Amino acid sequence: MAAHPGGTGITVPRSVADSRAAARYFGAGLLALGIWWLVYRSLPAFSRWFTFSLLGLAPGNRLSSAVEFFVFDGPKVLLLLTLVVFAVGVVRSFFTPERARRILSGKRESAGNVLASLLGVVTPFCSCSAVPLFIGFVTSGVPLGVTFSFLVSAPMVNEVALVLLYGLFGWKVAAIYAGTGLVIATVSGWMIGRLGMERYVEEWVYAAPAGVDDGDEGPDLSWRDRVDYGLDAVRDIVGKVWPWVLAGIAVGAGIHGYVPENFMAAIMGADAWWSVPLAVLIGIPMYSNAAGIIPVVQALLGNGAALGTVLAFMMSVIGLSLPEMIILRKVLSVRLIATFTGVVGVGILIVGYVFNALM
Amino acid sequence: MEIAILGTGCPKCKQTTEVVRQAVEQADISATIQKVEDIQEIMKYRVMMTPAVAIDGQVKISGRVPTVDEVKSLLSPAR
Predict the structure, then answer these.
(1) Is residue A290 very low, low, confident or very high in pLDDT (cuts 50, 70, 90)?
(2) What ipTM goes with this model?
(3) Is-contact A274 A347, C-beta < 8 A?
């Protein structure tokens, strides 16, 4: 990264210009990160000062503990969210569906399933382009099961959900969420591949022109473009989800101070065996992105629902959605969609039971 | 000049249509804007991400909502 000193008036080669820009962005990034860290570190003190000095609430009662919780957790989660969404945005600027397809085509199953699940996390994806992506993958030689691993992991392992789980329940829950999501995506894709269901893909799909136009892949991006990409992601995602996040934390704060803790335990506790399948079934017709579901998760957990049951509910809402199945019906037969739902559903059930048993 | 907007009707596709419409208006050129919503038709353009914008059959943008200036610069060489 040694920027060439004194390039007077001569046209600087693109690579040198780019590494200079990289150095500048690196410096600015460090500064921003430093400020971020200072703000983050001073949140506990700030929330105490705000609650007890500014508002003059007495320590130890319900109201003050709810206020302190909200003033601490609200900014904390938003700060984490901004940082992670930006980082994920920059990482995603290195990946496109075209590149994922190139990496995956011709890969064998097993290793291909694992790779597809991981790529599903880092590749920008919107469920509205699930169908073109599906066709683009299978027509260029990506095995059907590997394609499914990608399609399962892309919505299920979501960076916003990850940050929220980390912020609200700690890194263990967040890691478990990401890990189990990847395992479900890998295994269910692998199983669909084993079942040999290629004939249940609608015929016209394989008749579609092979390969995909790489049109928009464009020239290699500069660091400036990548930073812009990250900032765009922040504007787009954080700009959209912050009311939901704050609502979730407000609900959490309310519970923190008021609602008795084992309110939900009877219906969604670990002792009720049927709670996990019920949670999955309720989750299927509901459709929400990961951020929208977090307030609900927060409310359920705060009221004594078991973690496994709540995770199963959350994964079902995000990963198995009726609207997406209807979109996929254009390219897949009902039988394949049912298999897909069944395999992923069983995976979610296992996660639910395992967590309820462990925690 | 024919501009095709490829997308199955998600919010981003509508935004894209709006952006393209504004760009055409500002660039003051004559172009037909066509929305392609049928998935089989979309696949003929061989795109993997919607929304996508194709100009005279060539895919120029896919997987994101472009800016008005970007679309204008795509339109200008043909003037």
Answers:
(1) low
(2) 0.74
(3) no
